[in-house]
Structure formats: C-alpha cells, structure tokens
Amino acid sequence: MTPAAYVTLNLDAVNHNLTVVKRYAPQAKVMAVIKANAYGHGLLRIASQLEGIDSFAVARVDEGIRLRKAGMTQRIAIMEGFTCAQELDDLIEYRLDPLIHSFGQLEIIERCSTAAAIDIWLKIDTGMNRLGFSTAEFTEVYRRLATSPLIKQPIGFMTHLANADDRSCAMTLRQIHLFKQTVNGCPGPRSIANSAGILGWQASHADWVRPGIMLYGVSPFADSNGADFGLKPIMSLHSRLIAVKTVREGETVGYGAAWVCEKPITMGIVAIGYGDGYPRQARPGTPVLIDGRRVPMIGRVSMDMITVDLSEMSDIQPGQPVTLWGPGLPVEEVARWSDTIPYTLLCGITQRVQIVEQ
Ligand SMILES: *Cc1c(COP(=O)(O)O)cnc(C)c1O
Whole-prediction pTM value? Predict the structure, then answer.
C-alpha cells in the first residue's frame, strides 16, 4: 500500500533541465543552486544526479559541508558566506567558496593565519539591497582582497537580480550595466543570472549562470509554466481519497464554516493538508486531479485533509488516487491559486511526506 501522502521524483528530468540551461546560455559555466534541500527535492539526491556541473551553490556552510562529506568533488559556493572565524576555518577545511559581502568578513580574512588559499566570490549589490558591497565600496574591498595571501586570484564577481522575473522592468538592464561597469578591468569570472536571467535576459549570462528553480522544471515567471521553456518538472505530489459523502444544500464544509453548500453535492475528502506542505492559502476552486480530471477544492485546507467537489465525477470510491500537482496540473498553477510562488510549495513539503524516486 502506498502512503497516504507521497511525492514522486522524476530524477532524470534534472539533467534534461540542465540541457535547457545550456541551450539558453551555451557559453556559460553552470553553478547549480541546490540550497534549501535542493528546493525540497533532497540535497544529496539532486547533487549526485546532476551530470557535468562546474559548481554547486548553497546558502549555508553546513549545506556545503554535507555535500563535501558525501564525496562531491565539484566547487561549492556558499552564498551567505561566513560570519565568524570558526566558519571560515570550516570553509577552508572543506574547500568551500564563500561569498564575501561585508567588511566584517574582510576583517576575519585579514586576521586568519592559515596558509591555504581559497576561491571566493565577491558579492556586489547593484540594487537588490540584500547582501553585497555597494559600488562605492568596491575599489577598497577589491584592493584588500587582491592583496590577501588567503585569497586565490583572480577572484570571482557576483551580483543578484532583484526583478528579473518581470520581463518588462528596466531595472534588470540597469543592474547588469552597473555590475559590468563596477568590475570593468578586473580579471576574474562574472556571474549575474538566476533562472529568470537565463530564460529572460541574455545580457545577464556572463561567465557563470546560477539556475535554481528551472533545474527543478519550474518557471521563474508568474505568467508561464516550465513546459513553456521545454522544462520537465521533477516533483509530483499525490494522495488519495479517504471518504466520499453527500452534502446537503445550506450545510457548511470545514473550519470557519466558511464554505456554504448551495446545492447538494458529492464531496470527497483527500488525505493531504498543510501538515504535508499543501498550501493553507489555496482558495476554493483550486484544481485537484482525480482519474485525470480536474475537480475543485472546496472549504479550507486543514492540517491533514482537504475537501473536493466530486459532483462532476461518477462512481468515485475511497482509495482513489489524487494528484495535487504533477503531470496535468503544474505546480505553478497551484501557486497562483494560493497567492504564492512555486518555490514555497516545493520547499514546503514536510517530513511526513514519503518520497518515491522514479
Ligand atoms: C536562490 C538564488 C539563485 C537561484 O534562483 P532561481 O530563481 O531559483 O533560479 C541564484 N542566485 C542567488 C544569489 C540565489 O540566492
């Protein structure tokens, strides 16, 4: 018997999606972004499946250490860098490439007496206003890094796009221009593009691209699905019907008594809820796939269950498989119904959900 709620992973798709990255940015090296447990797909599972990757990128030092301890030999960029001397020692020991984004980090580097030399990426803030040095600080920071015995030369340069998923926004070209102008004349590789940059902004491709969401087969744009770019989703979320009943006119369904039955319906109860990572904000009407057909969710999402209107289906029995997203129902669409982005749905699958690799 399959578990009530489970995820299937079509792992072959990740290398297919990588070929799409390379088709869009054929000159660039690829830094595969596998932070946050590879967007919920499993850090080591995705890292070991990917073929021909030049570097991985994760957010935190501990994610990088897990990859090294599992035997990964590629470069590994740590996008939040480090915050103390102990973390810098770990980076050196495990040959991880930190992002340098603050003067506090520079001081730790300058106090470090280790003889090793490490690869780093210098993060420049061109408008995101999150991590990174301002363009005004660049000259001083570059001089200090270029003369540090701890730092391998040439160093890499990175910036992050704030609004690349809006293909009509002029900010992206301004960020690209500012970045190129700032690092002009300095030797060393450049990296700008996330998935939206790769798919939407050729001028952002530079020497290294950093695909995240598109590797998992999902579109970074609110108005399209991964399939529009030839991407194949890896993750599908499944459950099954555990009860079928009739609801009479005037009765309500679920918490808050928020959903009122306007005509008698056949209702199904599906064993999935926010305790599994199904979004609580999913609105009534959110489609769910049963037997290849879409039926609308009704009522509120609870921790372990959702309710669906089965009136359009005939002869439906408890036990029937249900797909919450997967083939025939893109996760992007469920995200739109839930006023969120697919990133949060992929990352949000919880421990209780069993994972079935395909
Ligand atoms: C998460 C992240 C990426 C990948 O973004 P996607 O939109 O998933 O492609 C790239 N660069 C940085 C700095 C990131 O934090």
Answer: 0.96
